[in-house]
Amino acid sequence: MAALFPMFADLNGRTVLVVGGGTVARRKVAALLEAGAHVVVGAPALAPELSELAASGRIDHRVGAFEAGWLDDAWLAVAATDDVQTNRAVAAAGEARRIWVNVVDDAELSSYQVPARIERGPLQIAISSGGGAPMLARHLREKLETQLDESLGALAQLLADSRQRIRTRLPDLQARRRFFDRLLAGPVPGLLRRGAHLAAVRALDEALATADTGQRAAGRVALVGAGPGDAGLLTLRALRLLNEADVILYDRLVSPEVLALARRDAELVEVGKQAGGQSVTQERIHELLLEHARAGRHVVRLKGGDSFVFGRGGEELEVLHAHGIPFEVVPGITAALACGAYAGIPLTHRGYAQSVRFVTAHCKDSADTLDWQNLAAGRQTLAIYMGVAGLETLRDRLVAHGRAASTPFAIVENGSRPEQRVITGTLADLPETARTHQVKSPALLIVGEVAALATKLHWFGAPPVGDVTHVFAEAA
């Protein structure tokens, strides 16, 4: 099923038909009246509370069984009966008239869903599971109710009342954004929490009077590590910057789940590099960073994993420093740490690996520069950042310099993502195993006795393919 499109509807003065006169209908009617709707309830009989509303003229009552003509003046409809055939008839009639219909507790018949809501004055937060798991939406609503202060309603109302003044004073979008960033980080929210409404108004007025109205302020760049893919691994600082950014320059390996957390009106620019495909050169990335920062924009350079671990982040900062562009760096969880953790592989383990080395070997030329004698030493773990090419060279060099051919390995493909795969084996069979399982990038190779623990300690995604637990047992 396609994702639902979230929308808040203005029902003030508009007719909404509710079919059903029982307890469920009463709850729906109450919410609709709160939104200012003109509510028509169609049912043979009404529950006492609905009868009182009809008697007082707050709702209209159409007596009898549902008729399609009841929908003629309606903007929206709710089927809230315990009769499946009646609910189906309402849904079908609404579909024929292009009128949105919610059938209570029947997502398949409904053309819209009523979300769980959190209300703080004019501020509303809606939570929907698409009708598939309403109890989960309710659970999240109850959890958020305890975390969102009641003063948010007063804050929302104050900002709504001041909206036109703010727009007039700060017609430039970026200037307004900077103003709101300072305002919300300042004393106004705290004053409203204490009930000091007049003091909050004065503080807003003072902030607005001294606001920067410049059309172009100095831009800045944040070099942000996006981690391996699981959006839950982002730092809080990274999340805040994604919500402040005007422009996000992101790499190919940044997951869609991470990008979905960015501010909705941010400009997203892919600047990824891919072997054998179209790539954006590093020089062009430098040009884009300078171009957007000089235009006064807040730029996030979003890189997979950590920007300072095989990410060329240092080169980009050198360019920014040379041109006087202010910057900050937010670390991300690098692939070795994430892949090891999500595959159940401790990179160090007492008795088997007292050190871990991060290595990159993308091609023969880079392989020739590595210190194979030290890399082949025992009692250490190798975390090798690479594509799926060059595995024969890596295996041959390690074995030739003394690493046992029986040393376990684990390839972690798409680490931390729902499609994660872990392939295990021994060093002797490394390239053949990778070909058999058609391993594709992004993938990280872990070599060392600890890799055998993937079979025993895996906890995320599908179990590893292959079994090298006996190697670890023998080593013990």
TrEMBL record:
Residues the entry annotates as binding S-adenosyl-L-methionine: P228, G304, G305, D306, V309, T334, A335, M386, G415
Catalytic activity: uroporphyrinogen III + 2 S-adenosyl-L-methionine = precorrin-2 + 2 S-adenosyl-L-homocysteine + H(+); siroheme + 2 H(+) = sirohydrochlorin + Fe(2+); precorrin-2 + NAD(+) = sirohydrochlorin + NADH + 2 H(+)
Pfam families: CysG_dimeriser, NAD_binding_7, Sirohm_synth_M, TP_methylase
Region (Uroporphyrinogen-III C-methyltransferase): 219-476
GO molecular function ontology, one term from the record: sirohydrochlorin ferrochelatase activity
Coiled coil: none
Pathway of action: Cofactor biosynthesis; adenosylcobalamin biosynthesis; sirohydrochlorin from precorrin-2: step 1/1; Porphyrin-containing compound metabolism; siroheme biosynthesis; precorrin-2 from uroporphyrinogen III: step 1/1; Porphyrin-containing compound metabolism; siroheme biosynthesis; sirohydrochlorin from precorrin-2: step 1/1; Porphyrin-containing compound metabolism; siroheme biosynthesis; siroheme from sirohydrochlorin: step 1/1
InterPro entries linked to this entry: 4pyrrol_Mease, 4pyrrol_Methylase_sf, 4pyrrole_Mease_sub1, 4pyrrole_Mease_sub2, CobA/CysG_C, NAD(P)-bd_dom_sf, Siro_Cobalamin_biosynth, Sirohaem_synt_dimer_dom_sf
Name assigned to this protein: Siroheme synthase
Source organism (scientific name): Lysobacter korlensis
Originating gene: cysG
